[in-house]
Amino acid sequence: MREVINLRGGLTTLRWSTRFIYTVFLAFCAVSYGVMVALALHRSGVALDGIATYYRGDEAQMIYGKTRGEMLEVTHFHMFAMPLMLFVQGHLFLLTTWPRRVKVAFVVAGAVGIALDLAAPWLIVYVTPTAAILENIGRICMGAAFTAFAVVPLYEMWLRKRPSDEDLFPPDALQP
């Protein structure tokens, strides 16, 4: 933790062991996002009517809608897991050398995406099927944010040029 608190020169200056464990974590996150996309495409696709049908059901196609209990269970789990991922990956992303405004915009996009992803099923089932557009907007926001949260730190840890000691500790900075 002390290493991260005293970070100078970006993620590329972290010790190899720290970069390794962050890399393992981010790699598992990236794979889980790939699985999540495949699951979403398999279950509902991206078409608004497919998303609405997944949640509301369709008697003509013999597709059963989600019950209140199913929706509560999924919401309960995701209400904890998704913000936790935003918190952990967002912190790591905020340690990158990208401009502060860009980093904040991605973190906000991730939070908005999570909120839309959690709210959309309830709105689709209990308000209107056209709320399916919110599901897609949430997916886009989360996709952009969490892709950046994984790719940018990995790039900076392993591919970005490591600053020299003179860049990190300029001689004139040590003078009284």
List keywords for this structure.
176 residues; mainly alpha; two-stranded antiparallel ribbon; 7 helices
Give an overview of the whole structure.
There is one protein chain. The protein is mainly alpha-helical and 176 residues long. The chain has one domain (15-161). 72% of the residues lie in helices and 2% in strands. A two-stranded antiparallel ribbon has the order 1-2. Helix 2 (16-43) packs antiparallel against helix 6, helix 3 packs across helix 6 (132-158) and helix 5 runs antiparallel to helix 6 (132-158). The model has no long low-confidence stretch (mean pLDDT 91).
What percentage of the residues does DSSP assign to strands (E)? under 5%
Sheet with the most strands? Answer: 2 strands, antiparallel
The value of Rg in angstroms is 21 Å
Number of helices: 7
